[in-house]
Amino acid sequence: MCTVRRVLLVVLVLLCVLSASAQEDKDMEAEISAELAAIKRFCVEQFVGFNPGAAQAREMAIANLFTAKKFRLTENCEKADAILKGSVTQSKDERFRAEGESVDFGVLAGYAGRNSGAIGAVRGGKSETLASAETISQASITLRVVNSDGDILWAHTEEAKAGKVKGPVAFALERAVKRLIRDIEKARKAITASGS
Known about the structure:
This protein is an alpha/beta fold. The protein has a domain at 35-95 and 137-195: TolB, N-terminal domain (Rossmann fold, 3-Layer(aba) Sandwich), CATH 3.40.50.10070. It contains three helices and six strands, in the order H-E-E-H-E-E-E-E-H. The chain has helices at 2-37, 53-68, 168-195; strands at 41-44, 48-49, 72-74, 82-112, 117-146, 152-161. Strands 1, 2, 3, 4, 5 and 6 form a six-stranded mixed sheet that branches. Helix 1 (2-37) packs across helix 3 (168-195). It is elongated, with a radius of gyration of 34 Å. The chain starts with a helix and ends with a helix.
């Protein structure tokens, strides 16, 4: 009987600890959502990664945020509600393929008589060779939003291959910034819904 009580007590304690941990997770998520929802002014720091692509990616991030018209952008990070940091990696894979085919033929004929002789030969051939080269570019963009205390509020990695119109860095960056804007809008809606 005593063992059953001990087991029940242990189970009860574990349930209390798990419940408290789940509540802490919900509180942390709500706190981060509130900070994301409150962002009105961004500062975009220099991106790290291959040069000059990282500097170009930073400029594209600024342009994408500016075009969205959802935030003010500042070069003075001390005035910003949040800082956007990022890294860029780009790789190129080159593939070369070649194949060939050829056919050769020949005929030799001769004639010899008493007083005369003749010999003749014919040779011919044909060959065909095909070759192709392909370069596949791909990029990986990682963005993170950091508050003034240095706490990471949001992070996302986007990978892309080169498209028909845009390069892989531009394509991945555009999708990552759209995801950031969508997540901030989602946090704002959640705050608005819980406040009403």
